[in-house]
Amino acid sequence: HCISCNKCVSGFDHHCKWINNCVGSRNYWFFFSTVASATAGMLCLIAILLYVLVQYLVNPGVLRTDPRYEDVKNMNTWLLFLPLFPVQVQTLIVVIIGMLVLLLDFLGLVHLGQLLIFHIYLKAKKMTTFEYLINNRKEESSKHQAVRKDPYVQMDKGVLQQGAGALGSSAQGVKAKSSLLIHKHLCHFCTSVNQDGDSTARGHLTTLPQDFREQAPVTWK
């Protein structure tokens, strides 16, 4: 089901905003052929522009073979839009137009080339774009779950690192670091209470240093 079109699509691949239509099993090859032909067209245009620029630098006379150039006496004048309606322009304008079109061609080729290579990869893996996105989301969610397995360890590391970096070596810093260490032991103690019960909690209490047990603001039953 496509959310953008609010329609059910057979073999749904993705919704393409450039063609304003969904891509599925019925029109996927038309979409793929469109991307491939557009990429090939840009490659041809780049080749033609490079040929024109190179010939202009090497031998400009090769580019002035059209019969209409017989009436043009100035070698610095060129005819654009041949053979439909020729327009006389200066060399600088031709070079600027050629460079701009070449730059736009390269930018378009980068985007279309990436899209074409991506769909070639999908066909090699026998996947759709939708399946590829779903698999990536599953992998990301599994990585996040692996990181969140031990939240107490992550909290202890963050608290101790921030506290140690900000407190320094003063007397107040030493006292505050001791409080942070108390917090660390209490977090591990609470984890053991949740897992093992009251008996394990009393056992962990004895492992705390004497000064920690005196400073910890906890009432034990």
Secondary-structure map:
Blueprint: E1 14-16, E2 21-23, H1 28-58, E3 77-80, E4 87-90, H2 91-125, H3 129-147, H4 151-167, H5 171-196, H6 198-207, H7 210-215
Antiparallel strand pairs: 1-2, 3-4
Helix pairs in contact: 1-2, 4-5, 5-6
Task: Please explain how this structure is put together.
With 221 residues, this protein is mainly alpha-helical. It has seven helices and four strands; from the N terminus they run E-E-H-E-E-H-H-H-H-H-H. It has helices spanning 28-58, 91-125, 129-147, 151-167, 171-196, 198-207, 210-215, and strands at residues 14-16, 21-23, 77-80, 87-90. The strands form two sheets. Strands 1-2 form a two-stranded antiparallel ribbon. A two-stranded antiparallel ribbon has the order 3-4. Mean pLDDT is 75; it is low at 166-171 and 182-216.
The total of beta strands comes to: 4
Span from first to last CA? 59 Å
Helix content: 55-70%
Largest sheet: 2 strands, antiparallel
Low-confidence stretches: 166-171, 182-216
Structural class: mainly alpha
Summarize the structure.
With 221 residues, this protein is mainly α.
Keywords:
two-stranded antiparallel sheet, 221 residues, elongated, 65% helix
